[in-house]
C-alpha cells in the first residue's frame, strides 16, 4: 500500500497492489495521520485476504534520510555470502521478528522468485575430457540465447563490403525442457562430441532477483514498522531473540536504520545534557559566588522528569529523539525559574531580612513571574502538542515533553527550592555579606514601580530624608 505524500496527494485516494495484480481503493483521508490510516487499513485488508503478506510504504525523502535509506523504522541487516545458507538465516530472523510484539509489515528485500537454470559441473569428469567450466557455460548460453552478445560472428559480403552479425541458437523444439538441455553437444579437447548430461547435472531453480551488497559484502534487509511500542523496547527484544539464533559461519545479523540512528542520537544527547548541566553549574557558581546556591537550583532539574514520563505515557507517545530534546528544553526553563527564586531570596537577605522571612517573601514575590513564564510556555506549545496542521505529529512529542515536565517541575520548584534553601542555610550558614543600603524589609510584598517606570524610593532601598540616611 502506497501512502502518497501531502504535496502529491489526490483527495480520497490510495493505491493497493498485490504481486501480479493492481487494485485502486478510494477512501477519505480526512485529518488522519499516516499511522492512523495504516492501523485502520491493515486489519481490514488481512481480513479480506487471509494469509497475504502486506507492506506499507509511507514514502518521502525525509523518511528515508532519518532511517538511513530504509523505507521503514526497523531494519535488520543480514550479512553472508552463501545464498542457500542465507535462506535459512532469513527464515530464522523473520520468525523472530514475527514473534516480537509491536512489529508489523515485515518485508524481506531479497525476492526468491527469479527462475534460474542451475548447471553443476563435475570437475573431475570435465578435467578428464579437457573441458573447462567456461566452455560448458558458453555452450549452454550459445545454444539457448545465441552467440550474438558474447561471441558474435561477423560476415563481410565480398560484393559490397557490408558487414553482417550472425547469431545462431537451437530451434524452439530443441530447447523446451531439461532433456533438450541435457543433450546439448560439447567438444572435448580431442575434438570428440560429448553430451552435457555426461559431465554435469541440470535443474530448474528459483533464485534472488537482485543481490544487494554493502561494504563489499552480500546483504539482506528485513524491514518492519513499529506499532504500539517504542523503538527502544522493540530493539531490546530483537537483540535478545537474535542472540539465540544458530548462525552459520560467515553470517552476522545487526540492527540498522532508525534504531541505529536513535541510539547514536541518544548517546550524543545524553553527553550534551551532562555537559550542559556542568557548564550551567559552573556559570551559576561564578555568578552567585557560592557552590550551594547552584546545587539548590540544580536539585529541581530532575523533578520535571516524572512529568515528562507520565505525559508521554498518558498520550501514548514513544520516547524518541524529539521528546528527548523537549526534556532538555524543559530543564532549561526549570533552571531559569530556580535562578529567579534563589537570586531574589539572596537579595532580601543582603537587605538584612531574616532567613525564614526572606525565603517566604522570596517565594511569594517570585510566584507570579514563574507562573507567567511556565503558563506562557505551556499554552504556547499546546497547538504543537495536539499535532495540529500538516506534519504536526512530527513535533508533537517535543511539545508534550515540555508541557508535562514543566507542569510538574513548576509546582515542585515553588516548594522544594525554598525548603532546601532553608534547610541548607540553617545547617551550613554562609558568611555574612555586606548589607545593601536602605530598609531591612520592602514596604510591600513586591517591588513597587512608579508611574514613570522607575522604582519607588521605598522599594529601591533608600530614604528620601537625607537626615535619616
What's a quick, concise take on this entry?
By secondary structure, the chain is an alpha+beta fold. It folds into 3 domains: 6-108 and 220-261, no CATH class; 114-207, Multidrug efflux transporter AcrB TolC docking domain, DN and DC subdomains; 289-436, Up-down Bundle (Multidrug efflux transporter AcrB transmembrane fold), CATH 1.20.1640. It is 48% helix and 15% strand.
Tally of DSSP helical segments: 14
Order of helices and strands: EEHHEHEEHHEEHEEEEEHEHHHHHHH
CATH topology of the largest domain, by name, is: Multidrug efflux transporter AcrB transmembrane fold
CATH architecture designation of the largest domain: Up-down Bundle
The radius of gyration computed from the alpha-carbon positions, rounded to a whole number of angstroms, is 37 Å
What would you give as the CATH superfamily of the largest domain?
Multidrug efflux transporter AcrB transmembrane domain
Instruction: Catalogue the unreliable spans.
Output: 1-5, 7-15, 438-469
Structural class: alpha+beta
The proportion of residues in beta strands is 15-25%
> What overall geometry do the principal axes of the alpha carbons give?
elongated
Number of domains: 3
Name of the CATH first level of the largest domain:
Mainly Alpha
Biggest beta-sheet profile: 5 strands, antiparallel
Distance between the termini: 83 Å
Helix content: 40-55%
Mean pLDDT value: 78
DSSP strand count: 13
